[in-house]
């Protein structure tokens, strides 16, 4: 059986050997200055968490130094990092958000 991919026909056997694209974790890092309530808002606004879950993740970051906001395809993770960092800078907070291959 053959499948069309980017204008080329490839064998099914070859397709099954192709690795699925990697996923990326989006991480928040702790700092001493960003207010806890601001971090909770970020987790709700950009990661769809309810207030209870956002509070738990924020406290984990606060106590352990970092925490996972979610796992996404590369382009989605990169966009979330940009949006979070830009939102934090607009509010003059040093909040750090990074992505890492899962
Ligand atoms: N440590 C911050 C404080 O005490 C709160 C905080 C939590 C900051 C999580 C960043 O990613 C963070 N105000």
TrEMBL record:
InterPro entries per UniProt: ClpS, ClpS_core, Ribosomal_bL12_C/ClpS-like
Main function: Involved in the modulation of the specificity of the ClpAP-mediated ATP-dependent protein degradation.
SUPFAM superfamilies: ClpS-like
Subunit structure: Binds to the N-terminal domain of the chaperone ClpA.
Molecular function GO terms recorded: peptidase activity
Adaptor protein ClpS core domain: residues covered: 19-97
Protein name as it appears in the record: ATP-dependent Clp protease adapter protein ClpS
High-level lineage: Bacteria, Pseudomonadati, Pseudomonadota, Betaproteobacteria, Rhodocyclales
GO biological process assignments: proteolysis
Assigned keywords, A-Z: Hydrolase, Protease
Any one Pfam family match given in the protein's UniProt record, by short name: ClpS
Similarity section: Belongs to the ClpS family.
């Amino acid at each position: 059986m053959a499948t069309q991919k980017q204008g080329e026909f490839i064998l099914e056997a070859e397709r099954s050997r192709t690795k699925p694209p990697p996923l990326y974790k989006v991480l928040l890092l702790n700092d001493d200055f960003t207010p806890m309530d601001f971090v909770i808002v970020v987790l709700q606004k950009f990661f769809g968490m309810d207030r209870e879950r956002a509070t738990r993740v924020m406290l984990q970051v606060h106590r352990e130094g970092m925490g996972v906001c979610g796992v996404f395809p590369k382009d989605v993770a990169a966009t979330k990092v940009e949006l979070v960092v830009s939102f934090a800078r607009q509010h003059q907070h040093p909040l750090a958000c990074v992505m890492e291959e899962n």
